[in-house]
Design brief:
147 residues; 5 strands; 30% helix
């Protein structure tokens, strides 16, 4: 393995949406931010990636989401991009390397591909870091409050 990519997503949320499992009216886990770091053993290929994504179904961010993430509506309106373009740029950044995330971000990516009418074929597997980290650092075994 020449390297790996660690992915972190922010996605739409409302007060109580996690407890409802995003089953409230018009609640979708639409990606708002894609952040990633590409790492290599020799540190030669380390790079960062960040882009804002304009949600299509819920373009107005909730006050809850803004307070949770610090991403302002004005910033999203100015820099946000459609999901298909943002995802294509992420895939190019990842360059086919294994993708890891804290939690089930792969499920969120799949939901967004479906919402955008994009095929799931070609989506890289997004591995969950939590089981591995729970073995290495048992204190991390507690469930994540955000997923």
């Amino acid at each position: 393995m020449t390297g790996l990519v660690v992915l972190d997503l922010e996605f739409t949320a409302w007060e109580g949406s996690q407890a409802r499992k995003w089953n409230g009216p018009n609640e979708h886990r639409e990606i708002v931010q894609i952040g990633a770091v590409r790492m290599s053993r020799d540190r030669s290929g380390e790079r960062q990636f960040e882009t804002l994504v304009r949600p299509a179904r819920n373009p107005r961010l909730s006050d809850y989401f803004i307070a949770l993430t610090g991403i302002a509506q004005a910033e999203l309106d100015r820099r946000g991009r459609p999901f298909p373009a943002a995802w294509a740029d992420f895939l190019e950044f990842a360059g086919g390397l294994p993708v890891w995330a804290w939690g089930r971000d792969g499920e969120v990516v799949a939901e967004n591909l479906l919402l955008a009418g994009m095929p799931l074929a070609g989506m890289p597997a997004v591995h969950d870091l939590r089981p591995m980290m729970a073995q290495l650092v048992p204190a991390t075994a507690a469930p994540s409050p955000n997923l």
